Amino acid sequence: MMEILKVDATRSTPEIFFDSGNNTLSIKGQSYPEDAFGFYEPIFKWIDLYLEQLNEEATVLIDFTLPYINTSSSKCIMMLLEKLEEAYISGKKVALNWYYTVDNDSELECAEEFQEDLSLPFHILPREE
Amino acid sequence: MVSTTLLDIQNSLRENGLLISFSGRFSQTIIEELGEAVRKYLEMEQSPMNEIHHIFSIFIEQTQNIKNYCESKENTEGYRKVSNSCIVTIGKLEDGNYICSGNLIATEDATDLIKKLETVSSLDKTELKKLYKERLRAETPPGSKGAGLGLIEMARKASRPLEYFITEIDQDYSFLTIKAVV
Predict the structure, then answer these.
(1) How much is the pTM?
(2) What does the alpha-carbon distance between residue A83 and residue B11 come to, in Å, rounded to a whole number?
(3) CB distance A106–B146 less than 8 Å?
(4) Residue A55: phi, psi to the nearest 5?
(5) Is B107 helix (H, G, I), strand (E, B) or coil?
(6) ipTM here
(7) What does the pLDDT look like over B75-84, one tens digit per residue?
(8) B169 phi/psi in degrees, rounded to 5
(9) Interface size between A and B, measured as CB pairs under 8 A
């Protein structure tokens, strides 16, 4: 019933593609909407339901490509990561790949700051383009 | 005459190294349009990617902060006055770029804002990072539009402490100017 969550990108919001069928979650694009909490609210709801029904055998692969996020979006991303962290601590298998643009230290730094406070598998990788 | 007025404006912009200036009411669309224009311009100038990222980031935080402040005045008497008082400029300095913005604030909000500005401009980068992280994990105050992180982020991305000035307009309003250098 909640198989796919798909939101197209706009100039200030990322593309969301969450597929509970094959356990992949992807967020791609810059994020600085007028109302970040409003934008991320349905995403939180989907994630909560998804993580609740997720069995411990499945491995969730998460891909983040967020070249620019404003502070209120960072707050939402942090909330999202905390949900994933909680699932990981409770024994579920989740792994995150965070892609950054080579030559952009700010993007790398942003990823590292999120990584610092989490214990779930969190890989920071250069984006190939 | 119209033509000389425009020339005066241009000369004044040039003297201040101004690249982009917008004065009026901020909307999300205007913020996006200007932000992307700034980015394109800096890319064309072949500025380092990091620097473009910092300028864009300060620009977005600052304009969204101001827009949120104006919206907090919705349904008050001063709403129109405050929301039409906004200005943002981006310009060149000898050793970098600056983002400078201003808007009217109600006198009753001045003390609180000055306190916040004093705090962020007194902290070094390590202390700013610590404060940023604390705030990122804290609960957002009820009724808040943003995450309360904008000024901290600006101070983190700027290469010098933020500068700010308050000009008293009358007993009800002051004009707040904030300048960040990258």
Answers:
(1) 0.93
(2) 54
(3) no
(4) -90, 165
(5) helix
(6) 0.92
(7) 999 899 999 9
(8) -95, -55
(9) 61
